[in-house]
Design a protein that fits this description.
Blueprint (H helix, E strand, L loop, with lengths): L5 H17 L6 H84 L2 E5 L2 E5 L1 H15 L3 H14 L6 H14 L3 H14 L6 H14 L3 H14 L4 H13 L1
Antiparallel strand pairs: 1-2
Pfam families: TolA_bind_tri, YfiO
Protein name: Cell division coordinator CpoB
Keywords: Cell cycle, Cell division, Coiled coil, Periplasm, Signal
């Protein structure tokens, strides 16, 4: 802030006083003193006015500078907020992409990991693809597509010989051949059930299907033999009850 120093004020007073000095001899001492005091008062008044004007101008300049700085600060904050929003959106998209990636990865892992399934009352580890193949093949049989079912079931037992579904797939393969009227293939398929999967609950039904196939081939001797074995080995099964009725009719 600009101020008039005492030395400058003295200079101004001297300049104003010099014309009076030239005519000092024309004035008395009292008059000269009064004139000098009046001049000093005027100089002081002018100095105060000048300083006030300078102060006002300085204050306004400072206010304008502060307003400019404030506006610049607001603009900078707005720019930074915009950058923050852009970064936040990028982070959100990245997080969503990451979640989707993890979900896809988890789904792929699950397709590769065995799942616990209950098959014929027993809990077993089954691959998802294995289960899907079995269910697809048996669905064909249930829909009446016996030829398609026979092909799918044959492929299943070839690909998954140790599967928990293998015995069931072999049994339904025999039934598919039986439904197609190919009784020799039906007998061959069901004999695999009775030998390879001898402990499976499907064995009594497989034996009954073998006996039925022999009967339709007019081979009564083998039909009776299988029915007798069924009654002897699995007397408490529902298939054994049917076998007893059929043995009575074969006599």
């Amino acid at each position: 802030m600009m101020k008039l120093s005492p030395s400058r004020l003295a200079c101004l007073a001297l300049l104003a006083w010099m014309p009076l000095q030239a005519s000092a001899s024309l004035l008395s001492d009292n008059e000269a003193r009064k004139a000098i005091l009046d001049l000093r008062a005027k100089v002081d008044a002018v100095a105060r006015e000048l300083n006030a004007r300078i102060d006002t101008k300085s204050d306004r300049t400072a206010q304008i500078d502060m307003l400019n700085q404030h506006e610049q600060t607001i603009q900078e904050i707005s720019r930074l907020r915009g950058q923050i929003e852009v970064l936040a959106n990028q982070v959100t998209r990245a997080q969503e992409s990451q979640r989707q990636l993890y979900a896809d990865l988890d789904a792929r892992i699950k397709r590769l990991e065995p799942q616990q399934e209950t098959v014929d009352g027993q809990t077993a580890a089954v691959m998802p693809a294995e289960k899907t193949a079995y269910e697809s093949a048996t669905a064909m049989f249930q829909s009446g597509d016996y030829k398609g079912a026979a092909t799918a079931l044959q492929d299943f037992v070839r690909r998954y010989p140790d599967s928990a579904y293998a015995a069931n797939a072999q049994y339904w393969l025999g039934n598919a051949h039986y439904a197609l009227g190919d009784y020799k293939k039906a007998i061959a398929a069901q004999e695999v059930v009775t030998t390879t999967y001898a402990g499976n609950p499907k064995v009594p039904d497989a034996m009954l299907n073998i006996a039925s196939s022999y009967a339709l081939l007019k081979d009564t001797k083998n039909a009776r033999r299988i029915l007798q074995q069924l009654v002897a080995k699995h007397p408490e099964s529902s298939a054994a009850k049917t076998a007893r009725d059929r043995l009575a009719s074969l006599k």
